[in-house]
Amino acid sequence: MDHRSKELFERAQQLIPGGVNSPVRACLGVDSDPLFVAHAKGSHLTTVDGETFVDYVQSWGPMLLGHAHPVVASAIHSAVDRGTSYGAPCEDEVILAEAVIDALPAVDMVRMVNSGTEATMSALRLARGVTGRNKVVKFVGCYHGHADAFLASAGSGVATLSIPGTPGVPEATVRDTLLAPYNDLTAVAELFTLHGKDIAAIIVEPVAGNMGLVLPVDGFLQGLRDLCTEHGALLIFDEVITGFRVNYGGAQKRFGITPDLTTLGKIIGGGLPVGAYGGRADLMRRIAPCGEVYQAGTLSGNPLAMAAGIATLTELKKSDYDALEARVAALAAELQTILAAKGVPVRVNTIASMFTVFFTDQPVTDFASAKTANAALYTSYYKQMRDKGIYLAPSPFEAAMVSFAHTDADLAALLDAARAITLSA
Ligand code: PMP
To answer: Which of the residues bear the PTM N6-(pyridoxal phosphate)lysine (predicted)?
Structure first.
C-alpha cells in the first residue's frame, strides 16, 4: 500500500538528512516510516499512495480552520497575483498587526518574523537588551524552537529523540539557560534567590504542548508573573501553540495573566511560514529601527503569509471556540474510558482543541511525569490507529490537534479506531 511513500522516503534519505526537513516527521519515535502527503482538505489528508487519513496533527497546530480552508485559500490565491515579496511595507502587514493586537491583551505592538524559532530568539534578545541581563529561565520539556539558548532539556523532537544537549551549542550559551520543572514555583523562586539580578526573563509555554499536553496548575502562571515583577525580569509567554488556539485571545486572555512579551507562530500564518513577537509598547520600541536591539528579515511580513493570516484570524474570530472545546473534552473523556477498558494505564490531558494520551497511571504535570508514560504502548497505539486511518503525532511528547473542520463523524472515527485496537500492558 505504502509503495510510493516508501520510494520517496528512500530517495529523500539520500538527499535530506533523515529524509525530512524537521526531525519529528521522521516518525523515529514510533518506529514507523513517514507518509508522504499529496494533498489535504479540512480534517483529512491524502498520501501519495492514495490513502486518506483523519488528520489529528494539523501541521502541528497552524491549521485550526482545517486544511485548504476556502477563505484562506482564496486570500492566498489573490495575493499571489499581486506579487509574492516586496521587501517594502504593505497594507496587509498593518491589518494583521491590528488583528493580533486587538486579540491579545498583552500585545501593544508586534513584529512579524518567519517562524516560531525566530520569534522566541528575538524576544529573548529584546529581553536581554532591555534588562542588561543574560540569564533566562526555561522549563524542562518546554520547546521554544531551535535557537541555541533554548536547546537545553527541550521538548518536542529533542525529547522524542532523547537528545540531552545539542553539539554545536556553545556551553557558555546554555550556561545562561536556567532550568526548572514545569509547574514548580518553588524551583523558580530558588533560581531567583540564587541569580535574581542576572535573570533577564522567564520563558514559558502557558500551556505546555511539547512534552505532550501539560496544563499549568492553579497559581503557576500568576506566580511566575509575581516573581518577574519582584525581580525586574520579563515574563515571556510563548504562545506559538496556544495563541488563537486556547481561545481567540490566547492563554494570556484565558488565564488573565499579562506577560511582558508574547511570541506567536503557527495559526497567525494560516499555514504559511510566519512567527511574531509582541508586547508592551515601551519594550517593543527598543527594537530597530526605533531602538538599538537589532532584528530583521528579508521575507518578514511576506504578503502571502499576511493574507493567509488575516483570512485565518477573520474566520477564527467568528468561530465558536467553546463548542469545539466541549466536543474535544467529550472526545478525550471517551478515549480515556475506551483505552482504560483495555487494562492499560492511561491519562488523557486536554484543553481547548488539544489532547494527549499518556500511557501512565499518574497525573502528568511536568516532564518527569510525562516520561513515566510507556513509550512502547504509545508506539503500538500509534501504529494501529494509523492502520485504521487515524493520523496522530508520531511521538508521545506532542499534542493531538483538532480543527474546526473536524466533524462529529471524524471524532467518532477516532473513537471507533481506538475501540478496535488491542493494547496490553
Ligand atoms: N514555541 C513553541 C511553543 C512551539 O511549539 C514551537 C514549534 N513547535 C516553536 C516555538 C518553534 O516554532 P517553529 O517550528 O515555527 O520555529
So the answer is: 266
Is the pLDDT assigned to residue 131 strictly greater than 90? yes
The response to whether residue 239 sits with its C-beta less than 6 Å from ligand 1 reads: no
Query: Which pLDDT band, with edges at 50, 70 and 90, does 160 fall under?
Result: confident
The full DSSP string for 250-312 is HHHHHHT---SEEEE-GGGGTTSS-EEEEE-HHHHTTBTTTSSB----TTTT-HHHHHHHHHH
Query: Amino acid identity of 63?
Result: M
Three-state secondary structure call for residue 110: strand
pLDDT of residue 153: 79
CB 314 within 8 Å of CB 137:
no
How many Å lie between the centroid of ligand 1 and the Cα of residue 138?
A: 14
**What are residue 262's phi and psi, to 5 degrees?**
-130, 135
Residue 205 Cβ contacting ligand 1 at under 6 Å: yes
pTM summary value: 0.97
Q: Which atom of ligand 1 is nearest to the CA of 239?
A: 3
Third-level CATH fold of 70-317 = Aspartate Aminotransferase; domain 2 (3.40.640)
The pLDDT score that the predictor gives to residue 163 is 66
Quick check: CB of 265 below 6 Å from ligand 1? yes
210 CB under 6 A from ligand 1? yes
Q: Residue 206: what pLDDT?
A: 98
- Tally helices (H) and strands (E) across the chain: 15, 14
Structure-derived torsion over alpha carbons of residues 80, 84, 88, 94, reported in degrees to the nearest 10? 50
Ligand 1 centre distance from Cα of residue 321 (Å)? 22
Rounded Cα gap, residues 389 and 34, in angstroms: 14
Domain 3-65+320-420 has CATH 3.40.50.1100: no
418: pLDDT strictly greater than 80? yes
* Fold equal for 3-65+320-420 and 70-317: no
Please tell me the predicted confidence (pLDDT) of residue 162: 64
Domain ranges, ordered by start, for the chain? 3-65+320-420, 70-317
Active site residues: 143, 238, 266
